[in-house]
Amino acid sequence: MDIKKIGEFIRKRRESLNLSQGQLSYKCDLETSVIHRIEVGERKKINYEHLKKIATGLDMNYIELYKLAGIIEEDALSDYYLPDFNDKINQQIELISDTKVDTIPIYESVSAGCGYIPDSVPLEYISLHLSGKENCIGIIVDGHSMEPTITDKAVIVMKKDTELKSKDIGVFLLNGEAYVKRFFKKNNIIILYSDNSEYSPIIVDEYDDFIICGKVIKTLNEIK
């Protein structure tokens, strides 16, 4: 990580917006001394969360600062946004089918956009054709960030404690909030993507409390 290069970029961006260090510190909820030390290159290491806040104060996507800092490589995003990737999204959700009918619990919604933990008491139970229902639950999605793959109020079937591969859709706990996102990992950097391009990717850093709850193996229509 080139601390001086990052600091110089932040300073020039701040000055182009006619912001003082004090004004920027107010916008991004950081001490003015923190902004100053970053800009002059005095910090040996920059907190990932600080970069996120500074990017917000500079009216830019924090992904750009992460790329500049070398936290995420330039091609990590290009690998995800392949020209034909969106055309194949629906084919990449693993659908499990079998002649056996199983009953699984359906829980309160987990927001695909903002995120919150589902209630511990099921709303109801439904019968599905599943191969190995063990550790499977249903969750009602509340949000538009995974459209068109998963629509608002759709039911997802999640298999707990399942290893995820890049581009799998999973359910995650991030700093106490639950998310339904597409998983991507490269060079030990974890990124959670939305299939809806209007939502920014979420980069999981070393300071985050992050848990992979399970893999989305099936999607259903809205339960009436």
From TrEMBL:
Looking up SUPFAM superfamilies in the UniProt record yields: lambda repressor-like DNA-binding domains, LexA/Signal peptidase
Per the database record, which ranges form the HTH cro/C1-type domain? 10-65
**UniProt cross-references to InterPro entries, sorted A to Z:** Cro/C1-type_HTH, Lambda_DNA-bd_dom_sf, LexA-like, LexA/Signal_pep-like_sf, Peptidase_S24_S26A/B/C
Q: What is this protein called?
A: Transcriptional regulator, XRE family
By its UniProt entry, which PANTHER family does this protein fall under? FELS-1 PROPHAGE TRANSCRIPTIONAL REGULATOR (PTHR40661:SF3), PTHR40661
Q: Which domain of life is it from?
A: Bacteria
**Keywords for this protein:** DNA-binding, Plasmid, Transcription, Transcription regulation
SMART domains to which the protein is assigned, alphabetical: HTH_XRE
User: What terms describe the molecular function in GO for this protein?
Assistant: DNA binding
